[in-house]
Amino acid sequence: MIDKDFMQDLEEEEEQQIAEAKQQVEDEPTCSLLKDNKFLQHYQRVLEVSAYQIQDETINASHEEYHLILRSNEYSTIIDQEILNIHKQLKDVYHKKFPELEKIIINPIEYVKIVRLIRNAIDLQAIDFSQLLSGQQVVAVNIAAKQSLIGQLSEEDISLVDQLCHKIETLDSYNQKIICYIESRMKYIAPNVSALIGTQLASKLMAAAGGIEKLANMPAGNIQVMGSVKKNMLGMSRAMHNRNTGYFGTLEIVQKASGKLQNQIVRMLATNVAKAARVDNMKTCPKGNVGEDLRIKMMKRYQKIQEPPPAKLEKPLPIPDENKKRRRGGKRFRKQKERLAMTEVRKYANRLKFGLEAEDEIKDTGIGLGMLSQGIGKVKLHIKKDKPIGLSKKLQQRLAQTKTQSGGGTGGLTSSIAFTPTQGIELVNPEAGYLSKVPDQYFNRESGFRTVLKKEREFGRQH
């Protein structure tokens, strides 16, 4: 365990060294790290520390080796950038001899190995590339050599090519040893994150975040875009440009995925890395079992996403039943059936006479009139005479009321003059028969309410 003040001074010294190394790479792009004493001392320290095994199961931020790992990861990034710079200078020099080689071999390390084999040779058929290249690449190199192989280089160019190749090989050997050291220690710092995405990518994420604690406190959306570089497309289309891959774009599973699935797999990786980082920060699973489980579940889900959708099956018609199905009955169903029944006009429109010409369509709709257009057949109007005309109860009451008011005891032909055998012509009251039939009740449908006020007034006058 070390003191907090010493840790703070150590972090400030690390940041200063990394900033100076980056500035040297920008100012002198040709192998500036090989001349940097601080980098060489750091490299010797890495070799010394990697020689012995760690006794503790975990490495915390309080350990001195924890900061050594972070600094090693920063130097690994700087070495990659410097290899690219030297590779660019090497392509410019060797372009004079074999301009098409840089298009076929893109990897800087493979390019250096092929240049070492060819050097200043003219006939490439005698050189065996099978140990370094695939069969397709060997054929492509031989065909390109016949078409674009220019003459030989001068002695000065050859010596410069050898120097640049030697620098790239030296830097690559340094980088490989530093990466091996980081990978050997990442299982103690972040075992679950290493089990999920690998030790190399785990070290890059941890270095970019500033430690496992800061990585654990970081949301998955920020982890997803870590390491992404915003490119200036200068007005070009961004349709085929994969964004937000960041450090996860170096994984093989992301590179092999299609454009639509790349964003999904990167989101899944970022989410699971956030979970695994919190487990590593709490030190609850030092063996990395949680990371292995997260990886297995993620791969199962990714395989399910890749599966094509199920094809639509043509369902066959059901087997017809021999028994007659029960039909719904009732007054409402019979009325609905009568309303939706096929009319005689529709029946004749659906029929055709055998042996006649095809019927004409109605305005190219594909619908004809059948036997109606041919003038064959007679449409009959069927009316059911036995079916009574349905009247509502309210209407029936109105009819009965009008019948009693207009008719009943007195008809329209009755008169007040009657002929009798004794007196001859006699005046009679036509409503006398109707009033005699009225029952002697206070409440009646025909007479209404009977009042007794007249009788009381007459009785009062008499007395």
TrEMBL record:
Which terms in the GO cellular component ontology are assigned?
precatalytic spliceosome; spliceosomal tri-snRNP complex; U4 snRNP; U4/U6 x U5 tri-snRNP complex
State its location(s).
Answer: Nucleus
**Chief location:** nucleus
* GO MF annotation: an example: RNA binding
What domain of life does the UniProt record list for this protein's source? Eukaryota
Query: What are the boundaries of the region Disordered?
Result: 305-339
InterPro entries named among the record's database cross-references: Nop_C, Nop_dom, Nop_dom_sf, NOSIC, Prp31, Prp31_C
Compositionally biased region (Basic residues): 325-337
Under the heading PROSITE patterns, the entry gives: NOP
**Which residues are in the Nop domain?**
189-307
Entry annotated with the keyword Acetylation: no
Example GO BP: mRNA splicing, via spliceosome
- Keyword Methyltransferase recorded: no
Record's keyword terms, sorted: mRNA processing, mRNA splicing, Nucleus, Ribonucleoprotein, RNA-binding, Spliceosome
Q: Which family does this protein fall into?
A: Belongs to the PRP31 family.
The entry's protein name is: Nop domain-containing protein
